[in-house]
Design a protein that fits this description.
Distance between the termini: 72 Å
CATH class of one domain: Mainly Beta
Shape: globular
Radius of gyration: 23 Å
Structural class: alpha+beta
């Protein structure tokens, strides 16, 4: 048997079962990478951005799910907006009192970047946008044990306000 035939024979063999990944396991692994939990909620909001010419554009949207660092919205009517376009996202005033939404969304306008665009479907499905909220990921929020998230490894005597003297 030639070397090429041996190589083809090796490549044709299935992977060992210990290296195979079950689709359910893969889904759990990707879901586990989220920094914060998603909440499925439909709330009215508005989106503002400037197009390529600098003209201000507005759109009425409805949230589908929200998290501390992102939101997925559906638009009432399709718009032309590209990936990574910076936008201002704001829940409608009456919607800010909804339960189980992150505090950042209750504050008012937030800077957000478009990181995924779902085109409208031929069967009448609406256009959707995945927005990454530009909130400081280091901001302290209280977790179950009372420690500030992301700051528990800092020594107690380190001050973030004053630079170290030399």
């Amino acid at each position: 048997m030639s070397t090429g035939a041996k190589l083809v024979g090796l490549l044709a063999k299935p992977l060992a079962t210990e290296h195979q990944v079950n689709p359910e396991q893969a889904a759990r692994r990707s879901a586990d990478k989220r920094k914060s939990a998603r909440t499925h909620v439909m709330l009215p909001a508005r989106l503002t951005w400037k197009d390529q010419r600098g003209t201000a554009r507005f759109a009425s949207v409805m949230t589908r799910d929200v998290s501390e660092f992102g939101v997925f919205v559906e638009l009432q009517s399709p718009v032309s907006i590209g990936l990574f376009r910076l936008t201002q996202f704001q829940l409608e005033r009456d919607a800010r009192d909804a339960r189980d939404i992150p505090d950042a969304l209750k504050q008012g306008r937030l800077l957000a970047a478009v990181y995924r665009v779902h085109p409208p479907t031929r069967t009448g499905g609406r256009q959707g946008l995945a927005l990454r909220l530009m909130v400081d990921p280091r901001r302290a929020h209280v977790v179950e044990d009372g420690a500030a998230a992301g700051l528990e490894s800092f020594p107690a005597d380190v001050s973030l306000a004053q630079p170290a003297s030399r």
